[in-house]
Design goal:
heterodimer; A: mainly alpha; about 75% helix; elongated; B: Rna Polymerase Sigma Factor, Chain: A; 8 helices
Chain lengths: ~210, ~180
């Protein structure tokens, strides 16, 4: 087939419509939040003293970290799924969540006596944390990988890893409402590992599933 | 490539997405020539047929046109897809190359040349269902309109459009997965 003939076929298909990628991303984000909320409520649910905890700095700081991660990953993944879109600013934005966590860790180390550092870091929920963040995030991750297929990422492995970070940020936001371990020392350790698991799964998904 | 080209091509693409077939044909012909110039300059060793990469890029542009933001320039989007498809073509043939983004600025439009070898797209076409294959061939190689194709096969115009759309999507998907022949 000559290229001119191919163009005739493409032109004859000009009227076929698909939802613009940027709108589709917002729908996917909504769907992913609903899926995560359902899994969260059906399994562990919020902690009983949620309202009382909402008045403490440590509890609230967890949501700042996870929401900042989700928002920055969402901006980056939308850029990565669009060919030729500039990614520099969104890439730089990914520093925000780790930076906030690092800052909180330093403050926590000043606030706590050295003898308490170990128990605060280990906490009492590390296995639940490492199990449920990936469990809540796996549905959203599937949605985001499917969205990458709908898009056109020229760096599929990186885009897949960012899909994992986005799913991780979302899942950790829900999980944080359940967990009694509010110390930044705990968050910096176990949340990071749990989210890294999702990022790794996302990168694998990007490598093998996101082809176009 | 100039700013005027960019503005004109973006205008054509916006009109095409709104359903203007004439603007779309114009856009695709001009993009094909630019991508051909880009790809030919990049392929210095044998093994990869530039025109195969041009055709893969055009198909990807078509099935992924919902990823273009209408307020963004269209050429960086086009060249990002062309670069991705070119790297993909080299990778399939066991080569690794790095392509410098800045080289794009020196690209000139080039006309198509006849090829002696069989095109990847023909093999991908062979892998379609018989109904999709005959519709895609009628509209492309035989140059029939949607209406003429519907009359030829005794089916509705809607059925022709659906077969054409699915057939093109299937070819693009095969290219994406590096599959070209019948399974």
């Amino acid at each position: 087939m000559r290229t001119d003939d191919l163009i005739k076929a493409l032109d004859a298909d000009a009227r076929s419509k698909a939802m613009p990628l940027q709108s589709a991303w917002w729908m996917a984000a909504g769907a992913a939040a609903v899926v995560a909320a359902i899994v969260f409520l059906l399994t562990i649910g919020p902690r009983p003293d949620f309202m009382a905890a909402a008045h403490t700095m440590r509890f609230l700081s967890k949501f700042v970290f996870t929401i900042v991660l989700a928002v920055s990953a969402f901006a980056l993944i939308r850029a990565l799924s669009t060919p030729g879109a500039p990614t520099g600013r969104a890439m730089a934005g990914m520093i925000a969540a780790p930076l906030l966590v690092a800052l909180a860790v330093v403050l926590e180390l000043f606030a706590l006596p050295e003898a308490d550092w170990g128990t605060r870091m280990v906490g009492s929920n590390m296995m639940i944390c490492m199990g449920f963040i990936p469990l809540i995030g796996i549905g959203p991750l599937a949605i985001f990988l499917w969205m990458l297929r709908y898009g056109a990422p020229t760096r599929p492995v990186l885009a897949g890893a960012v899909a994992g970070l986005l799913a991780g940020g979302l899942a950790a936001t829900f999980y944080a409402a359940h967990c009694f371990d509010d110390s930044p020392l705990f968050v910096a350790t176990w949340y990071t590992i749990a989210i890294a698991i999702l990022a790794l799964l996302g990168a694998l998904g990007g490598r093998f599933f996101v082809r176009w | 490539m100039t700013g005027k080209d960019e503005a004109e091509l973006s205008r054509l693409m916006r009109a095409a997405i709104a359903g203007d077939e004439k603007a779309y044909a114009d856009f695709l012909h001009r993009i094909a020539a630019l991508v051909r110039g880009f790809v030919r300059r990049k392929i210095v060793q044998g093994g990869v047929d530039p025109e195969d990469v041009v055709q893969e890029t055009l198909l990807a542009i078509h099935v992924k046109r919902h990823t273009w933001r209408q307020d963004a320039p269209v050429l960086p989007w086009v060249y990002a897809i062309a670069r991705f498809k070119l790297i993909d073509a080299f990778r399939r043939r066991g080569r690794r190359i790095e392509i410098d983004v800045d080289d794009i600025a020196e690209t000139f439009a080039e006309p198509e040349q006849e090829s002696v070898s069989e095109r990847d797209i023909n093999r991908a076409l062979d892998g379609l269902s018989p109904a999709q294959r005959s519709v895609v061939s009628a509209v492309s190689v035989e140059g029939r309109s949607i209406g003429e194709t519907a009359a030829k096969f005794g089916i509705s115009e809607t059925a022709v459009r659906v077969s054409l759309h699915r057939g093109l999507a299937a070819i693009a998907k095969r290219f994406g997965q590096g599959r070209f022949g019948r399974e």
